[in-house]
Specification:
The protein has 16 helices and twelve strands. It is α/β, with parallel strands linked by helices. It has one domain: TIM Barrel (Alpha-Beta Barrel). Its EC number is 3.5.4.4. Its cofactor is Zn(2+). This is adenosine deaminase. It is an enzyme of class 3 (hydrolase).
Length: 376
Amino acid sequence: MSTSDDDYYSDGIDIRDLPKVSLHDHLDGGLRPQTIIELGEQIGLDLPATEAEDLADWFVDSCSAGNLPDYLKTFDLSIAVMQSEQGLRRVAREFVEDLVDDGVVYGEIRWAPEQHLQGGLSLDQTVVAVQAGIDEAIDDAVRDGRDIRIGQLVTAMRHADRGLEIAELAVRHRDRGVVGFDIAGAEAGFPPSRQRAAFDYLASEYFPVTVHAGEADGLDSIRGALFDGRALRLGHGVRIAEDITIERSDDENVYVSLGRLAQWVKDREIVLELSPSSNLQTGAIERWGDEMDDHPFDLLYQLGFRVTVNVDNRTMSATTLTRELGLLGDAFGYDLRDLESFQLNAAASAFLPLEEREELSERISAGFEAADNEGA
């Protein structure tokens, strides 16, 4: 499927040109290295490298220790240059520009406003600044004949116990760009039940929630996301595969049984925001192996779980949605039909009104059909 680090094809079609939906994409994990260097110089930030290519390599190397805590340490650098209106606005604008270049037609950008107050901004001012950058990039895309829609996912850090305050912030901005709520950060030891007041409030406001779960912690974390957090989607959720038992296999078939939690997630079509490269870097799939073809993605897909493909953090994994789809295609032999299924899953799972999700799905299908016809 792939031809180089930059070009990925499916059935002879450039995956970058296909319409895509990005649901799990962290703003502070997608800064351009050159932007970090330039903004860092303005504030006197000590950087581990002063050339963009070297800094990009540093991020990937530092994030590949095989555990989530070390992975998260690298965010100190990116967050440091996002403490001003100027910094937030520029980062958000460039982020959307990179989504457009990646062929994304709908994206949800998640980030934690509480981590961007060191320069004196208020929580509301940070959200406004990010939205301003998003709007600028969308306007530029329209002028260039491209069309993209973006929603903010306002995130609370699960260790900081500010969940209710951040939930209220998200709801205040629900008609000004914010489409959902998330909790992120160190997963083990910080269950969703700690933020129960926030989740109760969000439920009372009919506000959609996704929760990081099943990445650095197991099945109990997923249970908490579903039943304490009322999550409609699981951020990663890859470790739901721990509740799947392979009974036996032969050359053609694998016979499995699902535990009650896995069966619930499958039957209720709870969305899995899987991020293959990131899952390898953080050791989230170490139970199954350390190569892409060890990832339980294909098992979950074949069993009928609502799988989606995501980047998690573009800078930390040196990746794009195009690349993630290409890597999965190489690992599991997926064709254009499979890639379309992943995008339709994502479109159906977006935090948009039903009618708009249906329109997005139609756009995805039309784009894949046009590409297929052109490539035939």
